[in-house]
Specification:
- The protein has 99 residues and is mostly beta strands.
- Helix content is 0%, strand content 58%.
- The chain contains no helices and 11 strands.
- Strands 2-3-11-6-9 form a 5-stranded antiparallel beta sheet, with no helix packed on it. The protein has a 4-stranded antiparallel beta sheet with strand order 5-10-7-8, with no helix packed on it.
- The radius of gyration is 13 Å and the shape is globular.
Length: 99
């Protein structure tokens, strides 16, 4: 189990359709292992390399501003900043589809 401090999560919007959270990762911080309950998009704002730990593997995830990506509901992982530089992204979670 990791002994990192928690990453800084700031919820910016939380309504019936979406939740938008800014995630800041100073060196030595992590999200903790979690499972996503919604589909989501990650929009990097500060470049860096984060270590992603899933039940199956551990890998480096380089985030670059302007290079957004998406993940599906059920994604399970811990995101850790093991580098000496802060990085950040905005996560947009989709609670329901507009009909």
């Amino acid at each position: 189990m990791s002994e990192c401090a928690p990453a800084i999560a700031t919820v910016q919007i939380d309504n019936e359709f979406t939740r938008v959270t800014e995630w800041r990762f100073p060196p030595g911080t992590e999200t903790g292992m979690h499972v996503h309950e919604m589909d989501y998009v990650v929009v990097p704002t500060v470049a860096g390399t984060l270590t992603v730990v899933t039940p199956e593997e551990t890998f480096a995830n380089e985030i670059v501003p302007g290079a957004s990506y998406t993940r599906s509901v059920g994604s399970e992982h811990n995101v850790i900043n093991e580098t000496d530089a802060e990085c950040a992204f905005v996560e947009v979670e989709f609670k329901q589809r507009r009909g």
